[in-house]
Design brief:
The complex is a heterodimer.
Chain A lengths: L4 H24 L3 H26 L7 H19 L1 H4 L9 H6 L24 H25 L5 H20 L1 H4 L11 E3 L2 E3 L4 H23 L1 H11 L1 H6 L4 H27 L9 H14 L4 H18 L3 H21 L3 H14 L2 H11 L5
Antiparallel strand pairs in A: 1-2
Chain B lengths: L1 H28 L6 H19 L3 H22 L8 H20 L31 E3 L2 E3 L1 H23 L1 H11 L1 H6 L4 H24 L10 H14 L4 H21 L2 H18 L11
Antiparallel strand pairs in B: 1-2
Helix pairs in contact in B: 1-5, 1-8, 1-9, 1-10, 2-3, 2-8, 2-9, 3-8, 5-6, 6-8, 9-10, 9-11, 10-11
The chains are: A mainly alpha, B mainly alpha.
Protein name (chain A): Branched-chain amino acid ABC transporter, permease protein
Membrane topology (chain A): Multi-pass membrane protein
InterPro entries (chain A): ABC_transp_permease (IPR001851), ABC_transptr_urea_perm_UrtC (IPR017778), LivM-like (IPR043428)
């Protein structure tokens, strides 16, 4: 890697700056309402990182990232639902979610074991730790099975995108259909607060913001480290030319499966944090438009830059929230963002990160690094 | 039994109607046009607005919607898609942006709503298209009840499929399109004006979306985001059928429509759609290039 020193330091400088701003924000922003909003956008930033990892570094476009986000969200929401005060008021000794009562057959016992068909699935979620663990374990298992099938059969390019898209739609329908277990269209609302060691995390507390803020910093640094390891480099070589990597003796599918699964795990983790901050889980997490939006955030921020994708996601959502304060501007903003997406794809395929690199290159007279970077980031079209 | 088959056939024809345009823009040109659903929506609005202002019926709205959607498609090709040939994922992202823009233009009445001007037939609300009464009264032939509007959709779909087949396989323009499909560089070397033919092909595919919109408007409420949900179904049909294969698209829509119809009766609508997605995933895993893909060299 023939990067100039200036660029290398500049790169790390952005990471340090990002972490300082994210962790220092509560000192400046005292409005807890906005702090809670920013926490949600940091979660979106984490989704941007997950997309950049699979799309930018592995060349795998996952149009169903919402599946893993949604699974993570539902897992932890089930636990928090059982801790909600509404679940304790249903006339049973152990908590039972209110919607199950509405869906129960007449005469069914008000117990989690058998109030509706399938309600027994909720039993282990009485322990909050189980829900939190499953929020990462379930997406990882699903991603492992899915990606093993996809990459062992050497499905590639746009077909991966179509399979993941169809799968997220399929699971969304299953969740909606399983009304007695998942509350269908309405999702899980009225959730309790996350409680760790007797401490309750009210979503509008600074400490809850810090759970999210620290998480995104850790995820960002961990993925940055991961792509700089030997495995990360081999992964990038499989992206640029899978056949050549195969001839060199690397098990291409194994690397693709690993990074796809890591990306899914991050999305599941993000789903868990989102539920903690937003206090609901709904099938809309598995909407196509949400999954595509994530990809668009990453594209605007810079598809092959982890921090760029994160900043893109946070920036777009923060501007959107500001714009939607006035109703008229809200609709106009959607129009503007549509135009921005088109312009970014046409004229700035490397996104904000690419723009920043070019500027850094101009200042540092190190145009070489810009050029090598460009060569790296030109992911194969198919 | 025949009733179940008719429901399946009816679902198939709607799938095919949407997929037909996509099989041309995606199959022939390698463009994942996420704005295809919005072209459908524009066709539906053309029917609504021409009904209000020009007082013309469904049959005249069909060619008009074809022209309007084709014109929008042509502009889209010239402004955006032309720069993205060969970058299939980027076409998906850019046209996703275009889809949002088109939806918002209808919702905001082309920005006029900011100035307090309201155009009847546009805006965020729901619209309806009037269907001639002889197409809404069910009648019986030999004891079998016939839904005239559903039958009309099936008829139009068959005619459009035949027309598309004729254009693609029996005209010199169609031969040029198929040559570009196989290999644009060699087609260009043989003297085909690739840019011009591609633009026309895209406009034709978009026009078909407009016709689909008019027919959908007959049994669905017309609203700005009515098209967004249809485009994914259309894609799955095209991919399952095999990119660039008209026969594949027809058979895939028949297959998926029948599966949807049968499972809708056995279980419910939601699970039936889930089964369709499951079948699609299985087929793509088994044969990523679809059931009827041509061998490319």
């Amino acid at each position: 890697m023939s990067q100039s020193k200036l660029f290398k330091y500049g790169d790390w400088g952005i990471y340090v700056l990002f972490i300082v701003i994210v962790l220092g924000l509560p000192l400046v922003m005292t409005d807890v309402f906005w702090l809670n909003r920013i926490a949600k956008y940091l979660v979106y930033g984490m989704l941007g990182i997950a997309i950049a990892l699979s799309w930018g570094y592995a060349g795998i476009l996952n149009l169903g990232q919402g599946l893993f986000f949604g699974l993570g969200a539902y897992m932890v929401a089930m636990s928090l639902k059982l801790q909600s005060y509404t679940s304790l008021q249903q006339g049973s000794e152990n908590p039972v979610p209110d919607f199950m009562l509405w869906n129960a057959e007449p005469g069914a016992p008000t117990e989690l074991c058998c109030i509706t068909s399938g309600s027994w699935l909720w039993l282990p979620f009485q322990a909050q730790g189980f829900g939190m663990a499953m929020a990462i374990i379930l997406p990882v298992i699903v991603a492992l099975i899915l990606s093993s099938a996809i990459f062992r059969l050497r499905v590639s390019g746009v077909y991966v995108a179509i399979i993941t898209l169809a799968l997220v739609l399929l699971v969304r329908l299953l969740i909606i259909d399983a009304q007695p277990v998942t509350n269908g269209f309405n999702g899980l609302t009225d959730l309790g607060w996350l409680t760790i060691g007797g401490v309750e995390f009210d979503p509008y507390l600074v400490s809850t913001y810090y759970i999210v803020a620290v998480s995104i910093c850790v995820v960002l640094l961990a993925t940055r480290w991961l792509v700089s390891t030997r495995a990360g480099l081999i992964l990038q070589s499989t992206r640029d030319d899978p056949n050549r990597s195969r001839y060199l003796g690397y098990d291409v599918a194994a690397y693709q499966v690993f990074f796809f699964t890591v990306s899914a795990g991050i999305a599941g983790f993000a789903g868990m944090l989102y539920v903690i901050a937003a206090e609901f889980a709904s099938p809309s997490f598995l909407d196509i438009s949400f999954s595509i939006s994530m990809v668009v955030w990453a594209a605007v921020g810079g598809r092959s830059s982890l921090i760029g994708a994160a900043i893109g996601a946070i920036l777009i959502n923060t501007i959107e929230a500001t714009a939607s304060e006035t109703e008229m501007f809200q609709e106009a903003w959607k129009l503007i963002i549509g135009v921005i997406f088109v312009l970014v794809v046409l004229y700035m395929p490397r996104g904000l990160a690419g723009l920043a690199e070019d500027l850094a290159g101009l200042f540092g007279k190190s145009r070489d690094s810009g050029r090598t970077r460009r060569a790296q980031s030109s992911a194969p079209a198919e | 039994m025949s009733e179940i088959l008719f429901i399946g056939l009816s679902l198939s024809s709607i799938l095919l109607l949407i997929a037909l345009g996509l099989s041309i823009t995606y199959g022939a040109m390698g463009v994942i046009n996420m704005a295809h659903g919005e072209l459908v929506m524009i066709g539906a609005y053309t029917a609504v607005i021409s009904g209000i202002y020009l007082n013309i019926n469904l049959f005249l709205a069909l060619p008009l919607a074809f022209l309007v959607s084709a014109a929008v498609g042509l502009a889209l090709e010239k402004l955006v898609i032309r720069r993205l040939y060969g970058r299939i994922i980027d076409t998906l992202l850019a046209t996703w942006g275009v889809a949002i823009v088109l939806q918002q233009l209808i919702r905001l009445e082309f920005g006029l709503s900011f100035f307090g001007i309201h155009i009847e037939g546009l805006g965020p609300g729901l619209q309806n298209m009037n269907v001639p009464s002889f197409l809404t009264q069910p009648f019986e032939i030999g004891g079998i009840p016939i839904q005239p509007y559903r039958s009309f959709i099936i008829l139009v779909t068959v005619l459009l499929t035949l027309l598309t087949w004729f254009l693609m396989y029996r005209t010199s323009m169609g031969t040029q399109v198929r040559a570009i499909m196989r290999n644009p560089q060699i087609a260009a070397a043989c003297g085909i004006d690739v840019k011009r033919v591609s633009a026309f092909t895209f406009a034709y595919g978009s026009g078909l979306a407009g016709i689909a919109g008019v027919l959908l408007a007959g049994f669905k409420t017309v609203m700005p985001d009515m098209g967004a949900s249809t485009v994914v179904d259309g894609f799955l049909v095209v991919v399952v059928g095999g990119v660039g294969s008209l026969l594949g698209t027809v058979l895939a829509s028949a297959l998926l429509g029948q599966i949807n119809g049968i499972f809708a009766i056995l279980t419910n609508d939601i699970l039936a759609r889930a089964v369709v997605f499951g079948v699609v995933i299985a087929i793509i895993l088994w044969r990523p290039r679809g059931l009827f893909a041509f061998k490319s060299r």
